[in-house]
């Protein structure tokens, strides 16, 4: 019986960051998630599809994908790909000498794909990062952080061209909390953020045109779908996982946002 989604780890326990060319042997993968790190994938050649949760995205280079911790994804790549992969653990962000890198990643936290133009600077920065990681020379951290900061700045520039704006600090932390645990209580998150439920609600309405409870619901329903689709957990087990005391409340909650029950969704898969 499969009670959890497959988890892949592509970085050693002692490493905080990994930067390397995309592995051409990973053209077809099973649905899986990464629980230890953020993954940024850049394709400058290749074709096929990238599946993230319920969405499928055509691989049309040059393009960048961001796979957040716990997102379920897999690849179906038709032609030999060419590109780079960056894996970033929280430990790297906690110890980085340049805290602007944290802010840059927060600005990208709601992005899944970013279409970019052919840009020799982006290619060069990825190549510099790969060379520095391979060489392990003195001053490695400073060089890697400098090149990574420059690369993220370029990516943010393209994301902003698609209409992305900076997130406020409170909403960035709210997003981080939703990635760690899911509870259907705005007051729970407001307390952790040292704000009021009313203020959190106001911020969410201003940024997303949704109430805080609706923002929570989007993430909760998304995770419920992952568990329904990729594990053998029952609806009851999923309800308790999200701290619902009564499974019927969870079923009504899910149906309110999806128009069908969790079991109806599961039967369609």
TrEMBL record:
Residues 168-268 form the HTH araC/xylS-type domain. Keywords: DNA-binding, Transcription, Transcription regulation. GO terms for molecular function: DNA-binding transcription factor activity; sequence-specific DNA binding. Pfam families: AraC_binding, HTH_18. SMART domains: HTH_ARAC (SM00342). Signal peptide: none annotated. InterPro entries: AraC-bd (IPR003313), Homeodomain-like_sf (IPR009057), HTH-like (IPR037923), HTH_AraC (IPR018060), RmlC-like_jellyroll (IPR014710). This is AraC-like ligand binding domain-containing protein. It comes from Pricia antarctica. The lineage of its organism: Bacteria, Pseudomonadati, Bacteroidota, Flavobacteriia, Flavobacteriales.
